[in-house]
Design goal:
Strand content: 25-35%
CATH architecture: 3-Layer(aba) Sandwich
Structural class: alpha/beta
CATH superfamily: Vaccinia Virus protein VP39
Radius of gyration: 16 Å
Largest sheet: 7 strands, mixed
Number of strands: 7
Oligomer: single chain
Helix content: 25-40%
Order of helices and strands: EHEHEEHEHEE
CATH class: Alpha Beta
Length: 167
């Protein structure tokens, strides 16, 4: 996910759906100093846990589809946030996905990274959000940016997308 960062300058990343802040733990253990981490999750329990475990880090608990996101960041990282749709229909999940991605992209200074389940599989699970490349590309170009990368080169039945502000 961090490959979304195009330069080595200092940057702020928003870990959207941060859970227990495993991305922050990774950054700390890898001693990556040029990234300022900000965590956001809708779950009070996750945010309370994170604030206790990492008291010097900024964490926010809110629903970006219901509340104004007033955090400045260069990149939003959404790892695993859009892979499951649980009992939602495809259309309901796509509506949630597209609204959320649009908000995050608008608020970001440079771009966003997210992953979804591939539709190029032997079978699709009803509880997962399988999104075809064509449907995604159509949405991105019409609503966000023509500057995007689809990564499908890491052996899983998902793919990762980087979407950038036009340079």
């Amino acid at each position: 996910m961090l490959d979304v960062i195009r330069d080595n300058d200092n940057c702020n990343i928003l870990d959207f759906g941060c859970g227990t802040a495993l991305l922050y733990l990774y950054l700390s253990e890898a001693d990556i100093k040029n990234i300022n981490y900000i965590g956001l999750d809708i779950s009070d329990k996750f945010i309370d846990f994170c604030k206790v475990k990492y008291p010097d880090v900024k964490f926010y608990c809110l629903d970006v589809n219901e509340e104004n996101l007033e955090v400045e960041f260069d990149y939003a990282i959404c790892n695993g946030t859009f892979t499951e749709k649980l009992n939602l229909t495809f259309d309901e999940m796509f509506s949630f996905f597209s609204k959320t991605i649009s908000i995050l992209f608008e608020k970001s200074k440079k771009g966003i990274a997210f992953n979804v389940m591939s539709s190029h599989v032997d079978y699709e699970r009803d509880d997962l959000f399988h999104l075809s490349h064509d449907v995604l590309a159509d949405f991105l170009v019409k609503n966000l940016s023509r500057d995007y990368v689809i990564r499908n080169d890491y052996g899983l039945y998902e793919y990762t997308v980087y979407v950038y502000k036009e340079w």
